Amino acid sequence: WILNENNWYFRDGSPEVCGNASGARPCPTGYSCLQHIGDNPNFGYTSFDNLLWSMLTTFQLITLDYWENVYNMIVATGGPMHVIFFTIVVFFGSFYLINLMLAVVAMSYEEEAEAVNLV
């Protein structure tokens, strides 16, 4: 019964995410929230199930590539306390770490160009 998708609540063609945590989006009337049922969102690529998927999802957040989708799903299932994680990752990760990485790459190119000009 649980694995039968006819019993799931769909919105806009995909299963609706909800949670039992305090502040999470409640399930619609007549439905129950169950953990570990069905595939992870975005064809299984978006999850924090293990270290590698967590790193991929965090990279998506740092690059600001449709990060609001991950944010909305986490807040819907886990509650508003997770906003702290997203604030830290988005501000420090995207605005600080990405710029730091770009600065290092630019300096490396500049040093290489100077080395070529000296030869």
From TrEMBL:
This is Ion transport domain-containing protein. Its main location: membrane. InterPro entries: Ion_trans_dom, VGCC_Ca_Na. Keywords: Membrane, Transmembrane, Transmembrane helix. The chain crosses the membrane at residues 83-109. It is a multi-pass membrane protein. Residues 35-114 form the Ion transport domain. Pfam families: Ion_trans (PF00520). The keyword Transmembrane helix applies. GO terms for cellular component: voltage-gated sodium channel complex. The keyword Transmembrane helix applies. One of its GO terms (molecular function) is voltage-gated sodium channel activity. It is found in: Membrane. GO terms for biological process: membrane depolarization during action potential; neuronal action potential.
